[in-house]
Amino acid sequence: xxxxxxxxxIFLSLIFAILTVxxxxxxxxxxxxxxxxxxxxxxxxxxxxxxxxxxxxxxxxSLKNQAFRDYDIIAVVDNTNDEALPTIRELGxxxxxxxxxxxxxxxxxxxxxxxxxxxxxxxxxxxxDSDVECSPSHLKYLVAPLKDRGVGISTAYPYFNxxxxxxxxxxxxxxxVGNGMMESRITRFGWGGSIAFRKDxxxxxxxxxxxxxxxxxxxxxxxxxxxxxxxxxxxxxxxxVNVDEDRKSFWExxxxxxxxxxxxxxxxxxxxxxxxxxxCMLLIFGIVLSVLLSPYYxxxxxxxxxxxxxxxxxxxxHRAFVLFSSFLMNFIFLSNLIQASKMKEIRWRGRTYPLVxxx
Length: 359
Hints:
Blueprint: H1 3-28, E1 43-48, H2 56-64, E2 71-77, H3 85-90, E3 94-97, H4 107-118, E4 124-128, E5 132-134, H5 138-143, E6 151-155, E7 159-162, H6 166-182, E8 194-198, H7 204-210, H8 216-226, E9 230-233, E10 239-243, H9 247-264, H10 267-292, H11 302-314, H12 319-325, H13 329-342, E11 345-348, E12 351-354
Parallel strand pairs: 1-2, 1-4, 2-3, 6-9, 7-10
Antiparallel strand pairs: 4-8, 5-10, 6-8, 11-12
Helix pairs in contact: 1-10, 1-11, 9-13, 10-13
């Protein structure tokens, strides 16, 4: 065998070993923490709204029908012309207008800051995005971990339920990587679409810092960790984000999400590019070598088979599509990371924000 070919195969084998161990560890090791549902303090649910989400009314109704003892819902909109407001009024949900004094942050952070600055008498605050559809037990499972003073924030993660075509289904599969990250404390993050914290996490000082942030979830994680508190994953929360994407909207969303993740932790960029570039190389040459040299080289695809198995466990439907698309995701993630590394600003719900980390 050619020496260069042999060296390359050894290199691929090293990548294979690392990715197989990583994939298998994610399959075998999941940190499950059951906090029960006994903790139900007076809770304020803040829903930042801008425009009409795909299933806005259904989402807001799901929040009104929570099996939780004592909670209030407040929606926050930019102005009285917002498209979401007729639905908010129809459902009898209280609302407020986002304060104009918060000028150096995202619209969502301004909405949350407005509600937090006026909230009184609530022990716990919950942020729920207006595109989230919750099960009736969502608040119970999300708030319960906060009875542990060692927990700073509690978060859930959604199933991106495709109600559209190809790109909606791609978003569903894209989201599965988040499920895997949530299952380990090492890679866990706060997902801003559903996050809960005790009111004392955000004092006057923290609110001043928070009101200059672009990403609310990065800020909440920072405040928790700065106080030596951990992020709890409320894995029993069952929530959907109903999605109807086209090619343009998917890539804008995926690149933006990746850019915000990198903003919160720059190491993710270098680790992610290295990992996904190696994965793409292994996939391509695993297929090439098995076709041109020996079918035994198909063993190099083991990490992808494990990943496919995990995705099949996570999906609720479209299993054939998941089978096909799972092999494409490494290329999509790599592209997202490369694009994110070049982004200086993001566009979010009609507004443009510079990518600046205030911490």
